[in-house]
Amino acid sequence: MQVNPFPFKRRVRIEMVPLIDMFFLLLVFFIFGVFWMSLQQRGILVDLPRASTDARAPEEAVPVSVTADGGVLLREEPVGLAQLAERLRAERAQQPEALVVVNADQAARYGVVIAVLDAVREAGLQRVTFATEPAR
Predict the structure, then answer these.
(1) What are the φ/ψ torsions at residue 66 (nearest 5 degrees)?
(2) In Å, what is the CA distance from 41 to each residue of 28, 30, 59, 85, 129?
(3) What residues make up the domain containing 73?
(4) In what order do the strands lie in the sheet with 99-104?
(5) Which of 20, 27, 65, 130 could form a disulfide with 73 if both were Cys (CB 3.0 to 4.6 A apart)?
(6) 109: phi then psi, degrees, rounded to nearest 5
């Protein structure tokens, strides 16, 4: 006696609805991935002032960020104003002609921004610029 392992002869079909669902999920995954990577690449979120003469800083620039609450970050790491000058001296030892880009939030206190600028000068770095958003 011969037993048939496939008693019903059904034609094999590729279901389209689950396939479309999977492609949609992959699309959403990659969209969120690109969005997250762009946030990570941007660094610290500060509300930069707008300027009509906006210019992007080169990749080898040393970013110093000042948040709205007065926090200071060097290369996305929190640092106190007292330690900023010595950390910038270490940067100067690696790159003597380094460009320092100050990313100051619009709501940051003027005194904190001037203290950061003073620490940059104290470290011996001469090339300083302020980051802005392009004007609309």
Answers:
(1) -120, 120
(2) 20, 16, 11, 25, 19
(3) 50-134
(4) 77-78, 72-74, 62-66, 99-104, 127-130
(5) 65
(6) -70, 140
Q: How many CA atoms lie within 13 A of 12 on its CB side?
A: 1
- Look at residue 6 and tell me if it is in a domain: no
Run means of pLDDT, 10 residues per run, the chain, 136 residues: 69 85 94 78 63 64 92 92 92 90 91 94 91 77
| 35 in the same domain as 62 | no
Q: Can you tell me which residue has the tokens 């005194």?
A: 111
Intra-chain end-to-end CA distance of the chain, in Å? 82
Per the document, the length of the chain is 136
Counting the structural domains of the chain, the total is 2
3-state SS assignment for residue 100: strand
- pTM of the entire predicted model: 0.60
Residue 93 DSSP symbol: H
